[in-house]
């Protein structure tokens, strides 16, 4: 890798996190996958919306609650139509709400396959700067991803960081998870 580069990486998950919870048909904890469908129920102007998950063993259903007893007038028409049309972006948005899912499930799978979309730009400095963009937070750690991109071991990476060769902006711990717009500068060693 040469110097004088600015790289941007967009982190694109390739799958929706599965969850583990009790299946009433299997009568035990099983993995549920996301069906990528909403279920919308309107009852006298009160609306419920769920994202539908299915048991990987018996296809039994679990409904992940999104809206509960909300008056139809309080939901904007555009959003409502996204629910009705199983808008993929909207489903993915909810399916990556880990804190919400964790409250309702025993476990949420965070080992998500992802693709890195790389873009190379010219830079005037003689450092390598990497900027990350990620729309869906799935707990991917900075050190893991950086080691993967730079093709070095995680311990080498930590060593470089300790020696001040790697700077993060904002200045967060390298073992924390990737955040949108994180910028990493690597001093001229590569
Ligand atoms: Zn089941």
Can you walk me through this structure?
The protein is an alpha+beta fold and 190 residues long. 22% of the residues lie in helices and 40% in strands. It is built from five helices and ten strands; from the N terminus they run E-E-E-E-E-H-H-H-E-E-E-H-H-E-E. A five-stranded mixed β-sheet has the order 7-1-8-10-9. A five-stranded antiparallel β-sheet has the order 5-4-3-2-6, with helices on both faces. Helix 4 (142-150) packs across helix 5. It binds zinc ion. Zinc ion binds at residues 23, 25-26, 30, 55, 57-58, 60. The site of zinc ion has 8 residues, from loops.
Fraction of residues in β-strands: 35-45%
Shape: elongated
The total of helices stands at 5
Uncertain segments: none
Output the helix-strand order.
EEEEEHHHEEEHHEE
Please give the share of residues in helix: 10-25%
Structural class: alpha+beta
Hetero groups in this structure are: zinc ion
Ends apart, CA distance between termini: 6 Å
Number of strands: 10
Task: Please list the strands of the largest sheet in the order they lie side by side.
Answer: 7-1-8-10-9
Q: Give the rounded overall mean pLDDT.
A: 92
- The value of Rg in angstroms is 21 Å
Largest sheet: 5 strands, mixed
């Amino acid at each position: 890798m040469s110097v004088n580069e600015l790289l941007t990486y967009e982190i694109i998950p390739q799958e929706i996190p599965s969850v583990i919870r009790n299946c009433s048909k299997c009568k035990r904890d099983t993995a549920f996958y996301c069906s990528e469908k909403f279920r919308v129920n309107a009852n006298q102007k009160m609306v419920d919306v769920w994202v539908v998950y299915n048991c990987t063993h018996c296809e039994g259903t679990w409904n992940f609650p999104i809206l509960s007893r909300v008056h139809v007038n309080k939901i904007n028409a555009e959003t409502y139509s996204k629910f009705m049309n199983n808008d993929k972006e909207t489903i993915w948005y909810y399916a990556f709400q880990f804190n919400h899912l964790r409250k309702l499930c025993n476990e949420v799978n965070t080992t998500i396959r992802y693709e890195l979309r790389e873009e190379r730009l010219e830079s005037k400095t003689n450092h390598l700067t990497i900027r990350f963009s990620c729309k869906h937070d799935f707990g991917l750690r900075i050190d893991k991803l950086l080691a993967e991109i730079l093709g070095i071991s995680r311990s080498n990476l930590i060593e470089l960081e300790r020696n001040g060769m790697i700077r993060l902006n904002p200045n967060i711990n390298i073992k924390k998870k990737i955040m949108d717009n994180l910028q990493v500068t690597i001093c001229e060693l590569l």
